[in-house]
Amino acid sequence: MLLIYICEDNLTHRKYIETIVKDYIAKSNRLMKIAFSTPSPTALLEYLAVHPSEKGIFLLDVDLEHDFNGIILASKIREFDYSSKILFITSHSELSHLTFRYHVEPLDYIIKDTENIKERVDECLNLAYYNFQQSVSETEFYEIQSVEGVRKIPFKEIMFFETHPKPYRLILHLKNGRVEFNSTLSKVEKEIQTGFFRSHKSYFVNIENIRTVNKLERVIEMTNGEVALVSRNKVNRLLEVVTL
Fold first, then answer.
1. Residue 182 carries which DSSP code?
2. Which residues, other chains included, contact 7 with Cβ-Cβ below 8 Å and sequence gap of 6+?
3. How many CB atoms within 10 Å of residue 166?
4. Domain covering 2-134, topology
5. Distance CA 170, CA 179 (A)
């Protein structure tokens, strides 16, 4: 999932940007969400310090009525995150040259009174999502610690993760076989942010390995014949994101 971060100190402008983003997500049916929206650059940096692996696209104002502006905020983001995309939406056209000085490499620098602001934001979201899909996730493997030792399992071999009857333990269903290890679905869901779908409180499935989805019975059949469950309130969303 591509995560979106917004930092804009003006409440009206922040809500407007949130509306643009939400409309884009609703119309595109893409796996994206607003992870954090705030008027404070400090709050954003604190959030990122707690969630260091959550990459995405940052929509930043330049004048944030703070000790440092949005361009310096972007440079601080770049110190620990080179892969996420940055988009400035601001009233200060005269500060655009600073993006070169601080080497933040933004997707765009949009002036707030621009007539086609929505179209330009949509274009940047399109590009960010395309790059996100094209890039390899943190690794092409998922690493677990089992009784057999450390294993690196290719994503393409994974059917789904299932909760174990024992607490804090999971069953990893593979193309040929299965393995148990200590973890939780919530933890795995944070570690693997694309290509999988939390279909049920007990299942986290690999979208690419879904063969069919039975909406009536709420059952997912995987390419290896195994089945997982999908909750009533998630079946329509799953059908939107999976290509059968």
1. E
2. 37, 38, 39, 40, 41, 44, 58, 59, 60, 61, 64, 70, 73
3. 9
4. Rossmann fold (3.40.50)
5. 8
Distance CA 160, CA 221 (A): 11
Contact by Cβ (8 Å): 63, 37: no
CB 84 within 8 A of CB 58: yes
Fold assignment, 141-241: OB fold (Dihydrolipoamide Acetyltransferase, E2P) (2.40.50)
Phi, psi of 108 (to 5 degrees): -160, 165
pLDDT in tens, 132-181: 766 644 447 888 887 766 787 888 899 999 999 999 999 999 998 899 99
Task: In whole angstroms, give the CA distance from residue 30 to residue 119.
Answer: 17
